[in-house]
Structures are given as structure tokens and as C-alpha cells.
Design goal:
472 residues; mainly alpha; two-stranded antiparallel ribbon
């Protein structure tokens, strides 16, 4: 049972912190299930700007750039000093990242927090794209956390309508060829062949089908991508005038003038013309498609249990999800209650984020300087927060993170984090190892910790050890 408690903390949670393994005690499954009830929102994020406020900041930035350009063209460059620049906008993002890291380092609901991060990576957007960078963190707060325990369809809709996703995958500019805006664009191009012709953009529709719902082998065709793309034309991001007119707090807007008119057919089912509701109806059906159930179950089991999870476990999770009508809590429960998920042979090599967060928790580090260092180290290890290289998100198997150079960098990161331990900390490396890993702390590592010449050296050995690098 002690091993199961350690697995609950390390394989399903974010890594042992303090007496967490003891708190789990003899009911590891109950400890996990208690975390998938209630609300995943965290008071630590209270007071941060919402996506509407960030959108206003971005429009202010664009307005200032236009004014600056006009002043420079008028020969008044000396007076042209923008009140806001990209660095100013980036500072808001850095604040968000530090708070998020602090929540992971200290939360008492680590399974729920892992789930938040899993879905954030499932619906990956990258701050590499400047226009989307302001919305990556708010998207997690506004579209993922509120729906973590609810229906997947609601999370899916909230994400696909969020300005972060609409901007990142270019749907904000997509217009139907036969829409009013499409017709205007065609006429303009006819008068002026050099004019930019706007049209349908399939990026978001393709990723919805390939990454967010059915999966790459989910049985859809190119025609389904195009039809879904037409159905969600008009799903866009509000401009300042839109926000003043609608007096809505969120940043989503449906532009009827950009929506492709007519019925759509996706996966063999017809959807009548219904404006904004047409795309919503398709997404709700996709959320309950059997291929989506299998895709989500496989990704979740691969994230928490093993790189190659048992097909039977995945099938049982998918059945539970469909039987519940797409309730995410049922999906999580099916995994947490299944014996296959607790198999002694199961285990995951920690991603850089897992490694860094679990190190913070093992050492009980959480001061501003600790968090700033941890973010830098995480980036150096190849997993900068909210910065995957593609909409597929960061990799989730050992082969993505276990190269020789990556392992060497982990040793360096372990040393850097160990140096952050306060000199007054009276816990020994062995005591920290037992608290963090429980029975997963092997004899060879324990011996090395006892023989360490200093606390910092011992803690660095602990963090760099194979026992710590794996989630068992």
C-alpha cells in the first residue's frame, strides 16, 4: 500500500511535497478521486487580467504603433515614444508564468493540477506567435480550469472560441467564400489583382479533427476538414468597437458577415444553416464520437500510466466516457479505479516540466527567485512553458526527453536547484528522498545520499537519480 501511495503522489500527482505520501495513507485511489470533484479554479490567479483586458492592451499597443509610424513619417521621431511596447506586454505574461509555476509547486490538489496541464498541452498554443502569446495563460484559466471536471464538449467549445486559439490557428481571419465579406474581397481582388484576397482558412478545423477530437486515425477526410472550416467561419476575436457595442466581457465575437452560408455535412451528418450554432452543433457531436473517446483515453493513459498503456485499459476508459455522455470526471475515475493503472510495471519518464516541478516540491522551494530559476531551467531542458513547437503540443513519451545531452542538462539543473536550499534547512538528503519517493527510493541512491559531503550535494544526487527521474 505504501507503494500505491507513492504512485498516487508521483505518477498521478506532481511529486511528493513534505508529508504528502503519509497524507495519502491507505487510500490512494480515494485521494485522487477527491481531487476530481468541485472546482479547479485557484485563488492564486485572482486579480489577473482576463482575455478581454489583454485584448484591450493589444489593441492599445497596435494603436500606438500606428501613431508612432505616422509621427515618424511626419519627421517627429524625437517625440515618438510609445507608452507600451512588446516588452511591456511580455512582462504580463512572465507574471502569469511565475504564478502558474508557484501553484504547481505548492498545490494540495496535484492530480487536478496535472490534469489542467494535460489539457493545456492537448489544446496547445504557443507564445512563439506574438499575437497569441497574451492569451495562452488566460486560455488555461478561462477555458480549461472551469471545465476540468465537467463535460469535454464544454471545454472543447470554450477552447475553440477562445481568442488564444482563434488567433493562434488563424480562424479569426477566416471568411466564407460566399459570405458577404468573401464577395467583397473577391470584387476588390478583381479591381486590383495585387489586393490581398481573404478566404477560408482550414488550420483550426484540421487541428480540431486531428488533434483535439477524433485523432489522426479518426476516420475523417479532407472534405470534413473543409466543411468544418466553413461551419466555423465568423468565429473571431472582438475589436474595440465590437466590445463597446456588445458590452460583453469576453473577447469572442461571431461575425455573421464572414460566415459561409448554407448547410454543412461532416462525417456523413448534415447540419442546417444556423449561423454560430452550426459549428457548435458539430463540435458537440465530435466530442461524443467513439473515435474521440478512444483518442482522449489513449492520450490520458499514456500521460499518467505508461508510454504504451494497456489497450484494455484504454477501451474501458473510452466506454466509461461514452456511457457518461462525455463527462471528464467519469474518464478520470475509470483510469484511477482500474488496477491496470496501478500496475508495478507502469511508469513514466518525467518530462522537463514534471522534473522541475517535482524538484521544487521535493525541496519545498517556492520563493520568487526559485520560480524564476525553475522557469529558466525548464526552458533549457527543452520545455519552455506555453511554447511547444507545434499545435500537437509537447511530446509525452520517454524518447522525447531522454537523450544524453538532455540527461546531462538535468544533472546541471539538479545542482542549480539544490543550491537554492536555505542554509538553515535541517532536513537531510535522505529524509527529503524518503518524503518525495517513499519506497521508490532505491538502496543505492539512499546510500549515496548518506555519504554526500553536503546537503546541497546530496540533494543534487537525489534529483539527478534514476529513482527521481521516473514517475513510478
Amino acid at each position: 500500500m505504501a507503494q500505491a501511495a507513492a504512485s498516487a503522489v508521483n505518477r498521478f500527482g506532481l511529486g511528493g511535497r513534505g508529508d504528502e505520501i503519509a497524507v495519502v495513507g491507505g487510500d490512494p485511489r480515494g485521494w485522487l478521486l477527491a481531487q476530481i470533484a468541485g472546482d479547479a479554479r485557484d485563488d492564486s490567479f485572482a486579480g489577473l487580467p482576463d482575455s478581454g483586458a489583454y485584448l484591450d492592451q493589444y489593441h492599445d499597443y497596435l494603436r500606438q504603433r500606428r501613431e508612432l509610424r505616422a509621427q515618424r513619417e511626419a519627421g517627429k521621431a524625437e517625440e515618438a515614444r510609445p507608452a507600451m511596447d512588446r516588452r511591456g506586454l511580455r512582462r504580463g505574461l512572465q507574471r502569469e508564468l511565475a504564478i502558474r509555476q508557484g501553484v504547481a509547486a505548492t498545490t494540495t490538489r496535484p492530480f487536478a493540477e496535472r490534469l489542467v496541464r494535460f489539457w493545456s498541452n492537448h489544446f496547445a498554443i504557443s507564445i512563439d506567435k506574438f499575437q497569441a502569446s497574451l492569451f495562452a495563460a488566460p486560455m488555461e484559466r478561462e477555458a480549461i480550469r472551469p471545465h476540468l471536471i465537467g463535460r469535454f464538449a464544454d471545454m472543447l467549445l470554450a477552447v475553440e472560441r477562445h481568442p488564444g486559439m482563434l488567433v493562434y490557428l488563424d480562424n479569426a481571419q477566416s471568411i466564407g467564400v460566399d459570405s458577404r465579406l468573401g464577395a467583397q474581397s473577391a470584387r476588390r481582388a478583381q479591381r486590383n489583382p495585387e489586393a490581398r484576397k481573404r478566404g477560408l482558412n482550414e488550420n483550426l478545423a484540421r487541428e480540431i479533427l486531428e488533434l483535439h477530437t477524433l485523432g489522426v486515425d479518426g476516420g475523417y477526410a479532407q472534405g470534413d476538414v473543409a466543411e468544418l472550416a466553413r461551419a466555423i467561419t465568423g468565429w473571431s476575436v472582438a475589436r474595440p468597437a465590437d466590445r463597446e457595442r456588445s458590452r460583453r466581457d469576453d473577447a469572442f465575437v461571431f461575425r455573421a458577415v464572414a460566415h459561409e452560408p448554407g448547410a454543412r455535412r461532416v462525417l456523413g451528418k448534415a447540419y442546417p444553416e444556423a449561423g454560430e450554432a452550426q459549428g457548435e452543433a458539430i463540435l458537440r457531436d465530435l466530442a461524443l464520437h467513439p473515435a474521440t473517446a478512444r483518442h482522449l483515453s489513449l492520450k490520458l493513459a499514456r500521460h499518467f500510466v505508461a508510454d504504451q498503456p494497456s489497450p484494455a485499459l484504454v477501451e474501458r476508459m473510452a466506454k466509461a466516457y461514452l456511457a457518461s455522455g462525455g463527462e471528464l470526471a467519469a474518464l478520470y475515475r475509470a483510469m484511477a479505479e482500474d488496477d491496470a493503472a496501478w500496475s508495478p510495471s507502469a511508469g513514466k519518464f518525467k518530462s522537463p516540466e514534471d522534473f522541475i516541478v517535482s524538484a521544487l516540491r521535493a525541496c519545498q522551494l517556492g520563493a520568487d527567485g526559485d520560480l524564476a530559476l525553475s522557469l529558466r531551467l525548464q526552458a533549457q531542458l527543452g520545455q519552455p512553458m506555453f511554447q511547444p513547437r507545434s499545435p500537437a503540443g509537447f511530446g509525452d513519451v520517454a524518447a522525447d526527453w531522454g537523450g544524453p545531452d538532455a540527461l546531462f542538462k538535468r544533472v546541471q539543473a539538479a545542482q542549480a536547484l539544490a543550491e537554492r536550499l536555505p542554509a538553515s534547512r535541517d532536513a537531510t538528503p535522505q529524509a527529503l528522498g524518503v518524503a518525495a519517493l517513499g519506497p521508490a527510493l532505491d538502496d543505492e541512491t539512499a546510500t549515496a545520499l548518506r555519504r554526500a559531503e553536503s546537503v546541497q550535494q546530496g540533494v543534487a544526487l537525489l534529483l539527478a537519480s534514476p529513482s527521481f527521474q521516473w514517475r513510478r
